[in-house]
Amino acid sequence: MIKNDPLLTKIAGGAQNQITTVEVTSAVNDGIHTLTITYNGASVSVSYTADGSATASEVAGGLEAALDAEPLLGALFVASVSTATITLTGRVPGQSFVASWGTVGAATVTNTQAAAEAGAIPPGRGVIARSTTYPKQCKLPATTDHVLKVINATPTAENSIAYQIAVIADLNFDGVVETYPAVYTSDGSATVQEIVEGLQAALDAQMPANTIAITEDNTKLIFTGELPGLDFHVTATETGSSATWTIANATDLTSPRFLGVAALDRSFEQNASDELEYPGGSAVQVLTSGQIWAELDAGVSPSIGAQVWCRLNATSPEVRGAFRTTQDAADCFLVPSASWASAEVSVQGGKRLGLLAVRPSRFTV
Predict the structure, then answer these.
(1) Are residues 130 and 160 both part of a single domain?
(2) CA separation for the pair 80, 67 (Å, rounded)
(3) Which of 224, 251, 278 is the endpoint of a domain?
């Protein structure tokens, strides 16, 4: 399946511990306040009886102590308290539980982080670094890993001057950064609304489709990336006046690093569908440089010279981590460190494969 090493060993990650908060919002004098934890079909309740001048903080502290004293719950999570809020942090990644309040007093229960098990990774799929927090782990890409970039551009109004603005980005995905300029000349009674509306129309006429959405709210221009991993910049000037521009990143781009392609390994296990995969939590061999047969997206055939995109969001028969030659709205991200080595399609185990040439990745935008 591989031509030319090297291989990188990572752990199939993605597991996370459940975190639940219980904020006591109302306490009852001399009342028996109860919190019930349900897990694996069993329930354990703890209680605290308030005094004659009950407060939410008193009840939260009493219940936290009761949770700590319950051995059946000590193995499930760590309880801590701050003012009137109890935080329950699961001890085991992937293990979930439900907290519910009783009938005395009141509390708000919030699951701030859901439990998740490490995801399995089939061979031939693209994998990304999980995060800088977990540098030894990899995972299949997902839309939740990516945050699209947003830039706001706010002008001040001056009469009868030329406002100039430009988007700077590689929107043809050919490795060349282009500039997309627009100019609008304000009238003799200029308003900011007039200026941003005029520039939006001028920019829309310049921009390639499905790359950067440009909107305005009567006070500023808003530039929003439409593709995961797409970076861009905005510059603006005005001619011969005291008018000014304020350019600010409203949302910074986040896109985890593409590591490579999961390689075939003899230690694979079969899942319930009799397919080979690296189980969650196991060591994954990732090809970072060389040629490898990679899984193709549904209905896609490779073409030498075509772009390489990796799927983030999948609707059957699509699968996350599969590769294709064109973008698919915001469901894929570009992999500039890979190219198609052949137009041939190979079928193995019912999967269509294309030959990818992978280079060490600098895809870290």
Answers:
(1) no
(2) 9
(3) 251
Domain that holds residue 157: 150-251
Q: Are 174 and 236 contained in the same domain?
A: yes
Q: Is the pLDDT of residue 128 over 60?
A: yes
The number of distinct structural domains making up the chain is 3
CATH at 333: 2.40.300
- Rounded to whole angstroms, the Cα distance separating 121 from 138 reads 9
Cβ-in-10-Å burial (0-12, 13-18, 19+) of 116 comes to middle
| pLDDT tens digit sequence for 162-219 | 999 999 998 877 778 999 999 999 999 999 999 999 999 999 998 988 889 999 999 9
Single residue among 205, 220, 251 that ends a domain in this structure: 251
CATH at 57: 2.60.40.4390
Whole-model pTM: value is: 0.64
